[in-house]
Fold:
Amino acid sequence: MMSKGKVLLGLSGGVDSSVAALILKNEGYKVDALFMRNWEDDDGSPYCSIKEDFLDAVFVANQLKIDLEEENFSQEYKDKVFSYFLKELELGRTPNPDILCNREIKFDSFFNHAMNSGYDFIATGHYVRNKTLKGKTSLLKGKDKTKDQSYFLHSVRGEALAKSIFPLGDLNKSKVREIAKREGLITSEKKDSTGICFIGERPFPEFLNNYLSHNPGKIEDEYGRQIGEHKGLPFYTLGQRQGLGIGGLKDSKDSPWYVAKKNLKENILVAVQGNNHPLLLSKELDTINLSLVSTLEEKEFYGKAKVRYRQEDQDCLIQITNKKLIIKFDKLQRAVTPGQSVVIYKEEVCLGGGEINNIY
Structure:
């Protein structure tokens, strides 16, 4: 069989990238793999799985008889992803490091490494699809609606998308595990990774304690009455319920408390009671750092948008102006959070998105 080209696959030691490697090989590509090492601050901690993941990647590469290399992008990750993440938290915003990680590491540093090494394509185990027509590359949702990851890839530059292969885009997760089990891959039963991209699962507040300044202040209700004390505004996000330490207040309803606002000027955290309190709801937002998958001729149109990964697509009016998005939703949205990303769609096509700035 004639090779379809040389592909460098990001092999993470998980089931998705393992099956992606198998599919590419069966389809006739010349496949090599690369394990990315992007976090080194606490390799010895019980929450860091990089050693286990690397051993699994080695085992899968041996099973599939493909070459595996290891590349350290930890400095790039610190400079381009983690430092921005911490800076935004200090400014009272809540950034999404997984989106940054895809744009700056997987589809920039890794992509450039592959192109400079003579590969024709890169590949990953993401549940998305892409299509190039007349020199224009589109990003499409993965067929498995529960696993679609287009939200995380909306800001990847077109040049990288055009040379990316996503072997899992047309598959359901259950089918991927079925393939892995049938082929005897060691990762077939391995649970999916969660937590911050490359940093992994760990108690988040405890982790941030090592990197963020502590500036305690008052927690107030909507009427300005003090109801508690916070340990520093960067440790909280809008809509958060757990970890507020509010309870047993006189004249208080039994409803749980939620973070509704951050007053950076006075270092005050505002909390309200009730999951759908008016201070938690909004219908309009604008963005900074607009990223479009490709140029859009329409500057105003009805489409869909989501303000968090697991959210159902929401009907809205989309306006593109002055390098930003203005989104006007048909229905009230809960806990829209500055720093998070809003991503826009037309049916199956992911058009791009931006970082949420102001909410109304």
